[in-house]
Specification:
The chain has one domain: UDP-N-acetylmuramoyl-L-alanine:D-glutamate ligase. It is about 35% helix and about 25% strand. The chain has a 9-stranded mixed β-sheet, with helices on both faces. A 4-stranded mixed β-sheet has the order 3-2-6-7. Strand 11 and strand 12 form a beta hairpin. The radius of gyration is 19 Å and the shape is globular. The protein starts with a strand and ends in a 26-residue tail after the last helix.
Length: about 325
């Protein structure tokens, strides 16, 4: 079954200025539309490392959803557990400045009730052979409870990513059950109710190691933009992963691709520090392009032998 990814699909509508961006004015530019959504991006990133993930999600009944599914299938994502519903496709509208950073956005979330239906009907067959599970931790409690019960039943590791931390903070009891929780610096500040904007990566690594003990988390990674990422585990491992220098074109999806790299590493035998290096390399490849996901890699480029895990390329 490979890595099972559970979450939403979005269509990203992105606007880029062709001259100096003026926040309060009208800006001439170009508008693009690409397939997005945190979990959809992660599934495609994993597939682009030739690791054959399974995506559990919902879409609507439009031609756009046809395109989403067809693209995932071309990238060797198992789409057998994607359900079509009336309001299953989300939309994210974003405006970028001249540095490739998001300066304004509006998100219309889809209805994910169908995911609960999929898990109730097919959860055992999906999870029992999974190599690991990826979940958006800010999904509806009913979905998460079913998924965590299945993970406990079959002793599968769960890795959590967040798309809305204001919702995710209400899931602290479930986050404690995950094997690794990944978020950015601003989200970590919300999660721990402290301001970390002025801390160096070295300081943040020490802080994170201490916070894991008091919050009873197994492991956590915090991305710090141009300063790289920091990580810590409940067993005492902690450190800083420096960034790779690249020409920034578009930062959309880089956090998702970093997370995908971390999950790939942890699922297939790497330490948390080694997994963060994989995540950094994959994220760097996304930042340097206009795509939301990484280009094609081979598992061997990250010293991963997929045949040891029953994956046939």
């Amino acid at each position: 079954m490979g890595i099972v990814v559970v979450g939403a699909v979005f269509v990203d509508i992105k606007g880029y200025p062709i001259a100096q961006y003026i926040p309060s004015g009208r800006n001439a530019g170009r508008v693009t539309q690409v397939h997005g959504g945190v979990s959809r991006n992660v599934a495609e990133d994993i597939a682009n490392v030739e690791l054959r993930p399974t995506f559990v999600s919902v879409v609507d009944k439009s031609g756009i959803s046809d395109d989403v599914i067809n693209k995932l299938q071309r990238h060797k994502v198992n789409t057998d557990y994607i359900l079509r519903t009336e309001d299953g496709l989300g939309t994210w509208l974003a405006v970028f400045d001249n540095d490739g950073d998001v300066v304004a956005s509006i998100s219309k979330r889809p209805s994910l009730d169908g995911i609960a239906t999929i898990l109730e009907e097919h959860g055992d067959e999906i999870i029992k052979d999974a190599d690991s599970i990826v979940v958006e931790i800010d999904m509806e409690p009913k979905i998460l409870n079913i998924l965590f019960d299945l993970a406990e039943k079959y002793k599968k590791r769960i890795y959590a990513i967040v798309s809305n931390m204001s919702i995710a903070v209400e899931r602290r009891d479930l986050i404690k059950k995950t094997d690794c929780f990944v978020c950015n610096l601003q989200e970590a500040s919300m999660f721990f109710s402290e301001d970390y904007e002025e801390n160096t990566p070295e300081e943040m690594a020490r802080i994170l190691a201490g916070k894991l003990k008091t919050a009873q988390l197994k492991s956590m990674v915090v991305t710090m933009g141009g300063e790289g990422a920091v990580y810590a585990t409940c067993t005492g491992e902690s450190g800083v992963t420096p960034p790779q220098k690249v020409n920034v074109i578009d930062t959309t999806g880089c956090g998702d691709s970093f997370f995908a790299g971390v999950v790939i590493g942890l699922t297939y035998g790497k330490t948390l520090g080694e997994s963060c290096v994989i995540g950094t390399r994959i994220a760097s490849s996304v930042i340097a392009t206009k795509e939301n996901v990484c280009p094609r890699f081979l598992p061997e480029e990250f010293d991963i032998d997929p045949t040891k895990f029953g994956i046939t390329l």
